């Protein structure tokens, strides 16, 4: 009789790319919970809206490209993009901001480059940067954390949140500067005084009310992904260590020109989200472990430089995109040393 | 316990080893038909030594190893050979190949085995021979002939012997059972192998820690012996040859090399036992332990099975539910190959027959896009970047793949195993590697043929130029002789009374004069050379002033060279004296002359002239020079032979001694002739010329002195020598599995054909000649004289003669046509060359132009002749 012809290996590990992506989505939950707790349901609505848009765009483009729609939807990569963008956007930003950003991410940054696995840039971050440049006002209004609400004021409920998002309105009472904003605009007070006078710091434990917990939430999720071996430690650790070292070097004893304390840099803004969920996006990062060390360090440096000396209060999106540019270059020079070879080779090396 | 190193990557697939370990080692009934593929190992297929219809006994050799890298095949039960034909092979390709088919008679009668109690006192070579005779090849999977691994090269001392009991593939437990049941034999086998390898400093058996029973058994058996038993954490693919070496020694086998290059020999436990049984009991490799496992079987266990047993027979004995199975795998799930047919036999390398159900090993899931997650790179034990290799393999960018070291991929499948996108990575690598190998072979072939073509062009051009020069000289000589004769006549000298020989001498003298009359030409040539060198220098200087950076430096170097050349040419011109030139001309003519059968007179002239132009002491000096040259060469060869520890050393030594003697005696003679002359130091200018003359003379003399039989013998010896070398090369190539195998084989075949032809010729002359026996060893006894040269010369003569014969049998008209045709081709070629020379600004441009013009003239002339002869 004839049997099926197949080549080795005949056994494979259970699970597929969709499972990997589901793990990533699952790992976002602690961060999302922290966001919702401190800033209200805005982020959750963002995430849902962005995910829905992402799925719709993905399906539409797949149809246009004549690709099997449910096969590709099942890899959950579009959902991951949507979730990450939703987490990064300010809560209660208008719905069209979310939709435009997500559509840009899926259509421009992903499918115009060939779709899954071929995009040189992180789609969520492309969407984010497009929004940041196009709609700076909407993108810089971040909600105030619950610790800073005035007496008698409450976090927005789901209904008023929806109203806010879809109908617009004056939510000025609910928006405020982020810790990084505050730090950026300070040039006269000592860090110590700043921490005492600004409510966003005075009501917090280490690095800004709410933000510190959000970051810890993402750190927890990242740790889970590391434990599940979804990615290796190289990129996040290298990024965080670089950021830490730079902030130590430029802390400047807490003067009015201080770059900010290490804790501020590690636990505010999008640091942890960036380190574990954005920088580790495998498609657009460097491939070898050595390469990922350089890649992560590069992101760390850029984040610090842009935060402290640049025009934007936070910089994870820019830093990641810039390092996406550098990834192929890093790959060329960081081939691992193969078994039986004295030295690592360079991918640019050609046989004659 | 010794340090254990870890390997990068690796995976932990489900072990699935317990299924086959529930039952003790079993046996299966003898099948009615057995199939023995002639190629169950790496290397040349075995050569059948039985005929169809012959009855054979169990253990009887039915096919002999062919060449060094090959293994014999033995019948595994008694019966009758029913066919020697192509059958489907147990091979990933699913192709067919020659097999010996045996109908078992059920009696299972064994041939007598030659046991040996005291095997450790036997010579190592004898032991290796016994292992080779027993047809033992690596039983772990690859099937490399064991005897070859046990005879490492002399310059690669082995310091570590590793016995591989790792068995890291899931499902397979054949080695585990073997270690549990035959631990004593394994240790004895290990000690035997260590003995053969001259007791390496470290003897170690490596076992993964998931086989506690095996470890206990082996440890107990190894007590009191120098054998170390090392267990290490289970991880796939620790049992890969390269990986195990890394785990146990921390060393890495250099890319493209064999473990023996770092002093390591590695053998599988099964192979070790087989070697022991072969030496101790004289038992050839006719059975092995195989794991029969998979949910599609009613019984899962290990069996001792006769080689040649068809797999369907084994499956039937184990309650195979065909419906449940979707695939049938030989080997493990990671590196085994799927069978399309179950009528292939169990062979020396079959360590597992795996019949999983659909549920156990579901069909591969659809492939998704690579998300570059890097899990594959994490798992790769060779530290490759599978995702990049996949990318380049899909894009067929082979030089990028090369830079990614794809050739170091061991095809372990770890990357495919972990890939969440279910990409069949290994399949891509296999295909790419195959293409790359083929490309390398093709490239080498085309390179070689291009080189051959260029070389041939050059040779033809040279030969033609020489012929042309000679023809001119001859014409002049004839004219001169005529003039002289007339002058003599006029002077009243009687030409009669001279013998024919004297006539020749006269002609020779005339030609000598003719040659000496050519200095004008030589001078003109030198002048031309100076002019062209000057031209080149100027051009270069111009370019130099235009260029910058790197280019400038390079040009500067070129200019310096051109200056030197110019200086040289000028010097030559300044020191131009007719005499040495004459000698040079003669020297150039002499070897060519021997090859020109159209004109035996010219040969004689050349030779006579060469003799005439030399005083006895000059001759001796030349002799000494040539002898010193030969001595230097011989000494070089000797040194090389010593370095390789070849068996030719003695013969070469004698040769060198003889040459030394000759030189001494020649020097003495010279001293006697010219006591004042400094020994063996002729003027440097004459040196080369003299040597050339000497060489030509020696060749001519050698040919003249040799009887045809001797000539043939010489040729035969030389070809034997070459043949032997070629064989060695081929075997090396095969052993290292290089791409040149095919080419080498071709060369070897050609040489064999030539050898046969020579033998036939020799037989015609002397049927009792000793060279007729098949003894390539004679090559070693030949003194290191330049045999190949004689060979080449005779070949040339032969060819020329053939041509002359052909010409003789042609009508004059045909001859002319022939000439025209050949001239036309020559002209074409010459024109091409000229064009190239012009393009490259060649310094010999003038010479090329002259050649084309001449050929044109000749062509015109010949055509004219043809017209006249037609009319
Ligand atoms: S494991 Fe598969 S999906 Fe991941 S990088 Fe490797 S090839 Fe791509
Ligand atoms: S098959 Fe090749 S590339 Fe894949 S893990 Fe094994 S050695 Fe590495």
Automatic annotation (TrEMBL), chain A:
This protein's name: Ion-translocating oxidoreductase complex subunit D
Residues recorded with modification FMN phosphoryl threonine: 178
NCBIfam families the UniProt entry points to: PRK00816.1, rnfD
Membrane spanning residue stretches: 71-89, 233-251, 263-280, 292-309, 315-335
Species this protein is from: Pseudomaricurvus hydrocarbonicus
Annotated localization: Cell inner membrane
Subunit-level organization: The complex is composed of six subunits: RnfA, RnfB, RnfC, RnfD, RnfE and RnfG.
Keywords: Cell inner membrane, Cell membrane, Electron transport, Flavoprotein, FMN, Membrane, Phosphoprotein, Translocase, Transmembrane, Transmembrane helix, Transport
Superkingdom of the organism of origin: Bacteria
Organism phylogeny: Bacteria, Pseudomonadati, Pseudomonadota, Gammaproteobacteria, Cellvibrionales
HAMAP family, sorted: RsxD_RnfD
PANTHER family assigned to the protein according to its UniProt record, in alphabetical order: ELECTRON TRANSPORT COMPLEX PROTEIN RNFD, ION-TRANSLOCATING OXIDOREDUCTASE COMPLEX SUBUNIT D
Membrane topology: Multi-pass membrane protein
Similarity-based family: Belongs to the NqrB/RnfD family.
A GO CC term assigned to this protein in UniProt: plasma membrane
From TrEMBL, chain B:
Keywords in alphabetical order: 4Fe-4S, Cell inner membrane, Cell membrane, Coiled coil, Electron transport, Iron, Iron-sulfur, Membrane, Metal-binding, Repeat, Translocase, Transport
Domain of life: Bacteria
GO molecular function terms noted in the UniProt entry: 4 iron, 4 sulfur cluster binding; electron transfer activity; metal ion binding
Biased amino acid composition, Basic and acidic residues: 476-489
Cofactor note: Binds 2 [4Fe-4S] clusters per subunit.
Region Disordered, annotated ranges: 476-496, 834-871
Residues the record lists as binding [4Fe-4S] cluster 2: 380, 409, 412, 415
Entry keyword annotation includes Ligase: no
Entry-linked Gene3D superfamilies: 3.30.70.20, NADH-ubiquinone oxidoreductase 51kDa subunit (3.40.50.11540)
Listed Polar residues bias regions: 858-871
Cofactor: [4Fe-4S] cluster
Entry GO CC: plasma membrane
InterPro entries registered for this protein in UniProt: 4Fe4S_Fe-S-bd (IPR017896), 4Fe4S_Fe_S_CS (IPR017900), Ion_transpt_RnfC/RsxC (IPR010208), Nuo51_FMN-bd (IPR011538), Nuo51_FMN-bd_sf (IPR037225), RnfC_N (IPR026902), Soluble_ligand-bd (IPR019554)
Membrane topology designation: Peripheral membrane protein
Domain 4Fe-4S ferredoxin-type, chain residue ranges per copy: 361-390, 399-429
Pfam families attached to this UniProt entry: Complex1_51K, Fer4_8, RnfC_N, SLBB
Binding site for [4Fe-4S] cluster 1: 370, 373, 376, 419
A GO biological-process term: electron transport chain
Annotated localization: Cell inner membrane
Coiled-coil regions listed in the entry: 523-572, 617-676, 716-743
Functional summary from the UniProt entry: Part of a membrane-bound complex that couples electron transfer with translocation of ions across the membrane.
Record-stated family: Belongs to the 4Fe4S bacterial-type ferredoxin family. RnfC subfamily.
PANTHER family, sorted: ION-TRANSLOCATING OXIDOREDUCTASE COMPLEX SUBUNIT C
Subunit record text: The complex is composed of six subunits: RnfA, RnfB, RnfC, RnfD, RnfE and RnfG.
NCBIfam families per UniProt: PRK05035.1, rnfC
Protein name: Ion-translocating oxidoreductase complex subunit C
Protein encoded by which gene: rsxC
